[in-house]
Amino acid sequence: QVQFVESGGGLVQPGGSLRLSCAAFGDTLDNYAIGWFRQAPGKERERVSCIGRVEGSLYYEDSAKGRFTISRDNAKNTVFLQMNSLKPEDTGVYYCAALSGFRRCVTTPVWDYDFWGRGIQVTVSS
Q: Which of 8, 32, 45, 47 has its CA 20 to 30 A from that of 112?
């Protein structure tokens, strides 16, 4: 069973950047597709981005396109989410999660992901 530790969150001003990291333990990340999710206060958890097991298989929600970049470093067993030009509406708790098998990370329902990190707070405010 894989476990995650997220890091890199915090408070940033609008227009700033953050780089989230999701370090995996207990298994190798290349066995999974990985997603990043955001849960804003009072809202459902939503998929922000995901990266498949196959190189080049990437997905971004519309508001993240052109601003966020997901990447994986299998040698470090870590997935990253580089977030630029941050907006107040990007505020929320960010989670990484693993999807086993060869299911598509973009079409698999949020709650069907197999393993979840504990989440990390991102606050975009002036």
A: 8
